[in-house]
Structure formats: C-alpha cells, structure tokens
Amino acid sequence: MADTTADAPACDVDGTCYCPLTGVISTLSQKYAIQLVSIIGAHDSLRFAEIEAHLPTASTSTISKRLDEFEEAGLVSRTQYNEIPPRVEYALTKDGDELRARLEPLLEWAASTE
Amino acid sequence: MADTTADAPACDVDGTCYCPLTGVISTLSQKYAIQLVSIIGAHDSLRFAEIEAHLPTASTSTISKRLDEFEEAGLVSRTQYNEIPPRVEYALTKDGDELRARLEPLLEWAASTE
DNA sequence: CAGGATCCTTATAGATACTG
DNA sequence: CAGTATCTATAAGGATCCTG
C-alpha cells in the first residue's frame, strides 16, 4: 500500500478511479437496492406482491422504482403474462446474478456484525 | 433456489431477513460511502485533504459526514496529531478492512461493466 | 394484480463562511 | 489544516388514490 505520488490525477495510485458515482454502484446506493437483489436472487422468480412481502418496510413506489432501475441496468428481467388477473415475474439476469454473488459475502458479514 | 413456503414470515426462505435497513448496509447506502472505504483502504492512512483530492466530486461536508459515520461504526480510525498546522490521519480499522475486502470484488466487477 | 400518478415530507448533499 | 455551522436546493422516499 504505497502512498500517492502527489502528481497523479485525483484518483487512485493504481490508476483506478472511483471518483464519480456511476453505473452499478450508484444504482446500489439507493434505498433497499442491495436487499432487493438479494431477495430476488434467492428465488427463481418472484411476483411483485411477493417482493413486497419480503420487504415490508419499503413502499410500493420505492420497490417499483428500484425494479425499473434494475431492469434498465440489465440486472433484472421482467416477464409479463397477459392473463387475468395480470401476472408479472421478476428474476435476476445473468448480470444480476453476478452482482448477487458479489453481494453475498458482504451481506453475510454485515449480518454477523449486528 | 426454492420458492417461499407461503406461511413463512415476510423474510427469506432460509430464515434470513434483509428487510430493515440496518447497520453496515445502511451506512454503505450513503453517497460516496463505498468509494470512501475503497480509497482509504488503498492507503495505510490518509489525511483529510488527501481524501478530498481522491474524491473531488464530493463536497467537504459530505466527506466529513461519511467519515464521522464510519468512525462511529468502528470502520475507520481517526488519529489526531496536535501539531501546527494540525494533522489528522484516517485509516481503516480491522473491521473496516474486512468490509473493504468484501467490497473489492464488487467494485472491480462494477468497473468492468461500464 | 401490478404499478403509475400525484402530492407531500423528509433526508441528503452542496455552497459558503468561519474557527481552533 | 481540518474541519464545523448554517443555510439552501434537490432528491428520494412514503402515502394515497386510481387504472389497465
């Protein structure tokens, strides 16, 4: 762990820059985002109401927003069945599962520190 | 990946509940929090101004707040030297480094997806 | 059932100015 | 240098109502 070379750009010694809040990290910095990935990943697929039941402290609109963001980020797939009553299934995509895998150690450790 | 047993509490199949936003996860859900852990962890110790230089898009007050929260959570240590001009060094604690280790795969992967 | 639209409240961050 | 205090702007989340 060397120190900064003083003339380097305002980023990291190894050239990696975490400065801007971009991509997945900014998506994860939303309320309940981490938990949602974990919850969806714990199942093959889930319906909206099921997700709500797993995260009772989050409001409908918050969950809805997170799911939209995840879908746009390609982390979650949304499958709509045109039945009556309507049915929608959410599941992690391959990318979403990559994320989940990297989140798991974090969540386990976090749970153990409480 | 089994599905819910329907009668289970509004948590996870395996009994794990991620519902409330608590502890480390809520600390991490703050702006720049993840990056800060990573930046501090990339050095043995850092002064306030150095941290600012590594995260130029974050304001002084935001960084200050994050550092306070980290210190309170026992993730970062703050060492003050009573010199003139004053000098303060921030470093990850053992716990903070545990966290950093679990964050690293996430950050690497996140960077690769951009 | 799934969730969008709206309105409202709170949380959070940023700018600025100032101090030990 | 290393912040804190204050204020303001904005974003984010929650409650409620409503619809395909």
Automatic annotation (TrEMBL), chains A, B:
Residues 19-114 form the HTH hxlR-type domain. The keyword rRNA-binding does not apply. It comes from the Archaea. Keywords: DNA-binding, Transcription, Transcription regulation. One of its GO terms (molecular function) is DNA binding. InterPro entries: ArsR-like_HTH, HTH_HxlR, WH-like_DNA-bd_sf, WH_DNA-bd_sf. PROSITE patterns: HTH_HXLR. This is Transcriptional regulator, HxlR family. It comes from Halorubrum sodomense.
